[in-house]
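Subject: for your reference before the review

Hello V.,

The reviewers asked for a structural picture of the protein, and I figured it would be easier to keep everything in one thread rather than splitting it across files. Below is the amino acid sequence we used in the manuscript, unchanged from the supplementary table.
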Amino acid sequence: MEPMNQFFSQIKTLRDLCLILQEVKKDILPVLQKDLETAEFLKGAIIDYKLSLYFFLKWIKVNFKPQNILYPASGFDRIPKIVFGKNNVIHTSIEDLQDGGKKYFNQLGDGIKIVADNHNLPFESEIFDLVLLLDSTFEAIGECRDEIIRVATKGGIIILTRNIFQEDNVKDRISHYQQSKLLKILHPSLENYKKKKSNVEFFVFQKFH
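And here is what came back from the structure prediction:
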């Protein structure tokens, strides 16, 4: 594995670097308090994921130029708004819609945050040119595929991720979206944005009807 300072040197601004490090700390802190060895393993995997996502979204920003971005089931992940700006990303979470559910918006910080169920999104059809389905389970984003497609613009893109923690259900999610007659899968050149070898994969679908 390359030294961490080589990874971080690829980030263009000190602000972005500080924000990404805060994201890593936020994810790892609950584990660090319980199991140091596991936390060290997770730290490497989380850094890999956060940096890969950052560079990939930078590539998306340059090549697709999305303006209206939806991040369903966003949790407290701030990487998309770091890349696209807080006023261009709409974050949704079920938050208070389920009893005992986790509350993420307080940790998300500023930005556009809407309490919503992905199965019934409170948006008009075809208004988002980018929808981010990141680090989510099949239950979170698989069953609401048609609703996700509904709010995407014609020519808009939908992004799914796969990382080392998601091998159990990623095939179900990818194949479920591939089966839609309204989507086609794109194969962007990884060399355009990848700065290092990564365990994270990105799947880009485009709505063409």
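For the response letter, the relevant points are probably these. The CA atoms of residues 34 and 170 lie 28 Å apart. The beta strands are 69-71, 89-93, 112-115, 128-133, 152-162, 183-186, 201-207.

Happy to draft the paragraph if you're swamped.

O.
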